[in-house]
């Protein structure tokens, strides 16, 4: 691995203290032999149906829908407000987990339902197949098939198809960017916006931040290599990677919906995410970029009470408000 000689940026004091306390059970580096343990760790206590119903304010359903072009059926977790106050939109959610772990309830209880209550949103969260058991294009095809089904059934689900937003964090952010590219290239569905939270975009894993943060924080260079290797095998980092696997490979970023991108200054994905926002602007698109100083990967989930995590959450809500209530 090429080394990077500049010192890493310092962690935010609150985040750095929490990171030090978690170092023994949340390692920076993840190697392929650790995938089973990471899946056990990420499974944790799953959100129960009762928790997702929020005292009856949401209806919950798990729906099996067809995969893409003969792929196996997949499951969509669908949550609908029971007493909306206005026209419903839809947040189509793709969970994170480095392409190798996680499920469609990840993050729904903590964040998405807050947004759903504030903005009258149906939440649809896709259970896509994971690598390495399912390499590319399986995961992104599942995500795109679920998105297409969701748009085609907007009437049944009760939302306005012109208010459909795709969102995801980490690997889910990368997959959200990929399905936005697929939707642009394949004639739909139309998207009102894409929310990409510290997205995993570039399989080449060789930006200054990827090298600078090796061995530090969460999801470092080695972990990123593990994730991309699981998805792409020996093709990772090579010349023939599809933009639907790694959106940073796309040559054309024009024609995308309004985009929200956030990332920490002290994480692997910093430079590829900044570059993605810049390239959207260079292509004439609209993007809002937040770089949180001293934040590591997944800081808001790991340390939700930190001041900088609260600031990040407010920025997301402000963007959604401008997008949905303009």
TrEMBL record:
Keywords from the UniProt entry: Hydrolase
Domain Alpha/beta hydrolase fold-3: 92-299
Keyword Transferase annotated: no
Classification via InterPro entries: AB_hydrolase_3, AB_hydrolase_fold, GDXG_lipolytic_enzyme
Keyword Hydrolase among record annotations: yes
One GO molecular-function entry: hydrolase activity
Pfam families: Abhydrolase_3
Protein name per Swiss-Prot or TrEMBL: Acetyl esterase/lipase
